[in-house]
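ESCALATION

Customer reports they have been waiting on this structure for their group meeting. Please prioritize. Original submission:
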Amino acid sequence: MSYSFYFDETFHDRKIVLSENGTINTTRQDGLDDYVGIFWGCEQSKVDEYAKQLTDFEDKYRKLYDLPCGKEFKSEIIGRKNYRCGIQSFTKNALAFYNDLFQMLSNWSYVIHVSIISKIELLIRRALRGVIFPSFANKDAFIYSLAKLIVVHRPKQLIGAITSAANGGSSKEFRSVLLETLDAMIKASYGVPRKGRTIEAFEEMRYIIRSMVFTADFNEKTPFEYSIIYYGLENLLTELGIKAEDVTITIDEDEGTYNASKAFSFDSVQKGQSDNLIQLRLSDWLCGFIGRMLYALKNDENNREKALEDISKIDLDDIKKKRLLSSEWFDLRKRHFDIYLLLYRALIIQHEHYWTTLASVYSDDVICFYSLLRYFGSYKSFESFKEVSPELHAEYYNSHAIGAMENYYQKNKWR
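Update from on-call: job pushed to the front of the queue and completed.
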């Protein structure tokens, strides 16, 4: 039986660039550490039927958004401001668009594979290729903790030290600044109950660093490793009993993604244009939704920690502040709640295979997103959901997400 798959991506920084002023393009205000790529596919016999449904769907919303006849409906048309508080802040048209889209998908028989990869983690892994870890160290746990430190706190001096090493400076400087950063973070975190695990992780990192042999070879620009997404899809196909030789793939035009496919045994991989292929536009709609939800979760004003501009001047009040998703995310009407339940069924219940989602070792953002859907899915009705205040929902969701992270990392022995 033959299958056709279609791929698109979002938040794709083709180069992870370390600038002279100590910033990384993936941590800028309009950027996201997570690369999001989505394959979706179906049996070849279903391609025309689904294409017709997608075309009718797009025609409806092209008219609703007053787009010219024939113009493709891109996910960016539903702007980022819609996602400020998740579904709660969607406009009427955005709500209708994604409600109808996921209703349609819930009636399909299709396969979906989601890749969500930390670009900072890829940078770290490349940077540490020449480093010799002591035998007692858990390398993945170390990489997780370092990625989290950079993604969450964005320490300018540490990023600057990596930049210096990337431009031919000594890796000893990176080692020195990393130790200085850890010392300052540990000192600032003492006595803060929510930072207990963080202190423990940073102390372990400090111990490991002192035993490392630093011969790292840094690069100013770190290319994205495209092959990762194909490994994830290949594993999902194996799990589903589908032979790679029976799969054709069309990717939205990208040379790097296309070239990486040549190492795999798919029947064929070809480049396509989204304005000519409705199936690629579905990949874009799904990527756009998940990517912007991840961005909104990461940049929620209550949830985002301040960037460490100067490690010697850590804002102790900011360190002490408990991070919770803004309560507005949970101040829902029934139509908002119903879409979350639909998302829960469409993205989780109907696709519970292990390899449906591929994530890197640093997977906090991925877990927060899926935990949000699972949290809403844990309520049997809107009435039972409304019995809890938005403020308490924020607390309960926080505990739910932390528990999911603990289970995931303990299972994989990364903590």
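Sent to customer with the following note: The mean pLDDT is 89.
Escalation resolved.
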